[in-house]
Amino acid sequence: MKTFFSLLVTLIALSLPVRGSAEPRTIRILHVNDFHGFAHPVQAPDMAQPLGGAARLAHRIAQLRSERPSLLLAAGDMIQGDSWANLNSGAAVIEFMNLLRFDALVTGNHEYDFGRETLEKRISEAVFPVLAANVSGVKGVQPVTVITRNGLRIAVVGLVTDDTPETSHPRNTRNLHFAKPLERAMELVRELRGKADLIVLLTHIGHAADRELAQSLSGPLSAAPHHSMRMGNLLIVGGHSHTRVEHPVRIGSNYVAQAWEHGKTLGVIDVVVDGGAIVSLEGHLEEITAAGGVGDPQVADLVKRYDERSTALLSAVVGTAAVDLVQEGVRRQETNLGNLVADVVRDTTKADVAIVNGGSIRSGISRGPVTMKDVYATLPFDNYLVAVRMSGAQLRDTLEHGVSAVERGEGRFPQVSGLSFAFDPSRSAGQRVVRVELGGKPLDPNREYVVATLDFIAAGGDGYRAFGAAIRSAGDFSDTGGALHSSRLAYNDPGRWLRDIVADYLRTHAALAPALEGRIRKVR
Amino acid sequence: MRVFVNDRAVDLAPGMTVRHALLAALGREPISTVGVYDAWGQLLGLDGAVREGDRLRVVEPEATVQGEGL
Fold it and tell me: Which residues fall within 8 angstroms of residue A428, CB to CB, at 6 or more apart?
């Protein structure tokens, strides 16, 4: 019903004639992007003090709004990221945005991370329009909203990156269709030009793509000879690349802006519009600091309320450990906790083998009830799961690297699932692995195996190189029917942290009693 | 996808970020005071999305630039 009403308002607004050039009018555009649920101030590089914080941000927005008519826009990736948001699947962020009376949000790729149904629930809770003109299949999402403010009709078009199906778990985008942002933008700008005083493209495609969009939309509106109306004179408010664009950049006849990340800065753009054209535009980023005091009390209460809920959730028992889950020695030898974590990774990804760096496992868990807080303390990093197809030879190299610094107890030491191996620490690094077996059979150097790990390792963290080498040959990604197909990448779920996956595993399995199974043996 | 960190090519899976590009180039987590800039000299967050062909410039405090890669 909300969507129907919004569309009705949009259609009525668009049916009215655009203002003439009676007098220029000013509108202030306030914008954030890639907030990722960071309700608390965060320490930024080279900054003497933490920046951001929902209450401070709200306070500054209220001050700026009081000065002149304003729009408040969010350029995607608002609801997923920090635990403050993740522990309630983004509901806290929508409540925050409702309190601030946001005018529009474009979905970012991470808005899809909790799945389509949860996104649709979040949209139903929002009192502002949620946009994505190039996405079909999500209930409640609309392509455009038209907002009348200070006598100006402002059309806001939402565009999200079309690689979302490749960068999210396939279940999150199943039966959804993502069209090319540029094609949809061209269609809609042609449709809206002359019907709105100002067109804002609210995008989540990254700054480089925003620049290309601005350039592509600087041409004539029509190919007809002597057609004077330009496609351009648009404002593009973007996100996705977390770019700190200090002042809106002019590209052709358009402007491109982005406000960094995590609510650390707020974008402020004053636009003077006359006769359907931007007469002048001035913008800057404002750092959100403690200078404004503690911030908006209503938002501070909201943050506190969800903090308390998070504390309660973290204290909740998610499962039972029938034995002590031992972290000690995780950087030098097999441990039962290492086995458990590696098993969860393999089970989730359905890989042949899982390899987890010991350094990712930070504390043990005592026998008895296990709380979410225990799991978070054990796996504190924002790691997600990746599985890559690699040769047996590459897998062996990976293990060699894993044990190459065992004498120093470095974090690279591998905890494994789906294989067993023996190594001789007295040998030179690179020649230590003496035996590798899968299912009781020796590793075949020429066979292909699906090997799961953490994104940290897959990217080359702790000096692992074999995953990067395998990914290097994975240039053939395609999306067919919502499922990711690639010759090398077998699993990729950047929207779900390992600790949450392990907590879910604990919830669905009876008392866990992982044991030492001789998966990793030291020999001389 | 292939991106460049201080002109060094690194290969990443779809969905990986500036942080992953630095991991691939440095072989370790970037320190918190690292500054990463895009082709236009604009500061990037470590969780920012990257895409094929992006060129990143990393500025670390001098004392820490001793690891692998850069």
Answer: none
